[in-house]
């Protein structure tokens, strides 16, 4: 049997040794190449002039020939005003892309001698760069759509016993719909029980599939309040081409899909895929990665940054067949070309976003 791509040496084309082996100048040249695609010319972040600007070698900066402004390779990027070296940023990016289902900030801070808070901010900036630069053109071909519920799990009740078993089962499956039960019958407090409704969110994923056997090629994921008809209709209007074929499960939220697109369903109470090949397994595959992040990395999901996280996982799914070097360069390029961080600059000074992002709205808002 042929060797799996992820086990091959082709995949491991870039290693942590290579980062440590680079001189400071090599790292700086790498960042210049990823930002401007050139070692000799730079675009001034102030006036946009593309030129071979005056070099200030001792400061690793340039002075613009047009507007005289001084700038560095990280000016007006996600990494602006960085306190740690470019090498540390490269190391963080390396561990971010080589982790299978995400990396915890507390783990990253041990690997790279960064503070816990600083490492978490850097992860937030990586996610922000991925989110702002995602490709939101309409999906075509065959598109799998599904929703998964995340967050809002009640804490485990203090008292053990048979009547709590359902609550625990609901916590594990994330499925709390359909079984309406008075909160006092669950052996927990009212406020704890109501977390299910208040803090739970649905991640809707839309994935365009590639050739048979190759999995999905492009994914869009959005956080919504519920997996409902209006949400599904809006998402299809925005992100799916009218000529695409849509495959979903038999949830009633998808009842109106056939009004705009070819629509096939699979009954998940019977099977994962029909004999004709109707399935939405690419959406399930995405949820499996996000769910594993919850179980193994984050140990819990909060609604505030759920949209950022779901977007990170969509990116991980989409680049899963690229080499480490390609992923590393793509992540840093996005960080260097999507402008200032609007959500993480000033985090140390108390500027927190605080609000969640629903239906991809408010992407352009900065923290206040
Ligand atoms: Zn300038």
Characterization of the model:
The chain is an alpha+beta fold and 368 residues long. Among the domains are: 5-39 and 77-132, no CATH class; 142-149 and 202-303, Nucleotidyltransferase, domain 5, CATH 3.30.420; 159-198, no CATH class. The chain has 11 helices and 10 strands. It has helices at 16-21, 24-36, 86-98, 105-112, 116-132, 162-173, 190-198, 229-239, 281-298, 306-318, 324-337; strands at residues 42-43, 50-51, 54-56, 61-63, 70-72, 142-150, 201-209, 216-224, 245-249, 262-266. The strands form 3 sheets. It has a 5-stranded mixed β-sheet, with helices on one face. A 3-stranded antiparallel β-sheet has the order 3-4-5, with no helix packed on it. Strand 1 and strand 2 form a beta hairpin. The longest helix has 18 residues, at 281-298. It is globular. The mean pLDDT is 89. Residues 44, 46-47, 49, 64, 66-67, 69 line the site of zinc ion.
Task: Give me a quick take on this structure.
This protein is of the alpha+beta class. Among the domains are: 5-39 and 77-132, no CATH class; 142-149 and 202-303, Nucleotidyltransferase, domain 5 (2-Layer Sandwich); 159-198, no CATH class. It is 36% helix and 14% strand.
